[in-house]
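agent> Task received from the user: take the single chain below, predict its 3D structure, and emit structure tokens. No templates, no multimer pairing.
agent> Plan: (1) validate residues, (2) run structure prediction, (3) serialize to tokens, (4) report one or two observations.
agent> Step 1 OK, no nonstandard residues flagged.
tool_call: predict_structure(input=
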Amino acid sequence: MSLMTDQPARWTQATVYPDMWVDPDDDPRNSEGVSPDGELATLQDFLTGYRMTLRMKCEGLNAEQLARRSVPPSAMSLLGLLRHLAEVERDWRNWITDGDPLPKLYGERDADFDGAVAEQAEVDAAYAHLEREQAATDAALAAHPDLGERVGKEGIAVRELMVHRIEEYARHCGHADLLRECVDGRVGQ
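)
tool_result: status=success, residues=189
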């Protein structure tokens, strides 16, 4: 007996492993060769992989799908995650500097999620903000290649900032997995 639901059927593009997003040969996160040498290169590689995963989970969706709040009563959506991570990247720069904090991109608390509306201009802006903020934070941290260096007013170690960035993206990629499955049924790693 099958019950009617509003939930989309589960599916994947992968043909090799049914629980993967794409086949290993088609996965842009897979790289040939040995893993990076050194702690900094390893941390950067993991961060790059999670950033790419988030973008993969959002690709192929329209503005309505990206803005869909798939798990009520949460305000979380894929578009909200893009906006949130742009806001978080900006905030990490506040931890690096001794100067005045940068203003928030989206305003008050939770505005990154609450303002994620189904408009293409909003989607385009979210991607542009995220790309700009990632590049700016990457550049700010590149000036501090010693992972043990303490930066900013709080004297936080660069290593801690890098690990926290990875943790933030990894956690939100888990959210993105569930949000995407609720939007169109697509599953995978």
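agent> Step 4: summary for the user.
The helical segments are 39-58, 63-67, 78-96, 111-114, 120-142, 158-184.
agent> Done.
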